[in-house]
């Protein structure tokens, strides 16, 4: 039996995934509104395909638990899927992990041999330097009375269910054989390589993945800014031809979608994890120059686009914004490039802004409360202005190019 603590994007997908594979899973979250939504078989965020999986598993292999004590005591494995936001210095804040550990450990007996798995993204050395000492402070002998490991997730928003059920690899950072035996049994039905590595290696692989993707994006944006500076360069064609190199296609992950210019990366993972690794590197005496530059370019690309728009669009003219989520097929607006771009437009004096996103209008307005107008369909949005700024590459925007025939388009994703 498994208990999953934290039922957000990663936690709920994890809980339902292990349920689907035949495990008994308890789910717990301190957010009562989220728990009520899930108990009513309604996903509290958008993730393709997950609604049907919830309806199938809730009350069967997946059980919501208001009683964390019973859930923990009934489970062999406890998986932490709580947030690790950035603190004011860009470091990964572990307060939610420590709070979850407090709740778990007070319900653990020293003879239970409980395995605590951190699935939340944490910088390399966190388990060894912070989590294990914290558990020891609570009076437990790690590796004898309580076992600790990390199991990073590699889930793409919009494709999380398929990524969990059909992964390309499983990574488990652990220092003991008991955890290896138990976790190998849990993952035996996934039929993919299960890599048991050291604690630091498990954490590092997650950051290796995310910072590589963020580096590709910022590299492409820097090249697009160089191309703009030189002039006479068809940026879209240049990158399309660049992608014809057959070496890109050895992996179905389509890495060319990252090595392509746009208006910056956003969402919960890439900005936070890149910054966290910069901070962690400094703690160990290394200056991560490339990663710092990646973050700098990710900031610079937004005003670069606004400068281009400002040269052509008078301040008193209306502007239409297409796309508010940080990526298509998601309603996630955390650290979305749209936020920075709209704020810059407002700061530069553009006051007549209309926005449309197929999924994120309501959430964007609820969180950021900016003085802009929202419309609920693409046609109305396009009709608001002769100048259109496309920020998110939704398929709906790409498939309706005819609507922009007489418009000035600023295609910040180079998708049209």
Notes on the structure:
With 416 residues, the protein is α/β, with parallel strands linked by helices. It folds into two domains: 2-197, Rossmann fold; 207-411, 3-Layer(aba) Sandwich (Rossmann fold), CATH 3.40.50.720. It contains 16 helices and 13 strands. An eight-stranded mixed sheet has the order 3-2-1-4-5-6-7-8, with helices on both faces. Helix 16 (395-399) links the parallel strand 12 (387-390) and strand 13 (408-411). The model has no long low-confidence stretch (mean pLDDT 94).
For the largest sheet, list the strands in their spatial order: 3-2-1-4-5-6-7-8
| Mean pLDDT score | 94
Uncertain regions: pLDDT < 50 for 5+ in a row? none
Question: Could you please say which CATH topology of the largest domain applies here?
Answer: Rossmann fold
Distance between the termini: 49 Å
Q: What's the number of helices?
A: 16
What Rg do the Cα atoms give?
23 Å
How many strand elements? 13
Q: What is the ordering of alpha helices and beta strands?
A: EHEHHEHEHEHEHEHEHHHHEHEHEHEHE
| β-sheet strand percentage | 5-15%
Taking the sheet with the most strands, its summary is:
8 strands, mixed
Please write the CATH class name of the largest domain.
Alpha Beta
Give a nutshell description of this structure.
This protein has helices at 9-20, 32-39, 50-57, 68-74, 95-105, 126-137, 160-165, 177-186, 199-230, 235-242, 270-283, 289-312, 337-347, 361-368, 378-383, 395-399; strands spanning 2-5, 25-28, 62-64, 77-80, 114-118, 146-150, 170-174, 194-197, 319-322, 353-356, 373-374, 387-390, 408-411. With 416 residues, it is of the alpha/beta class.
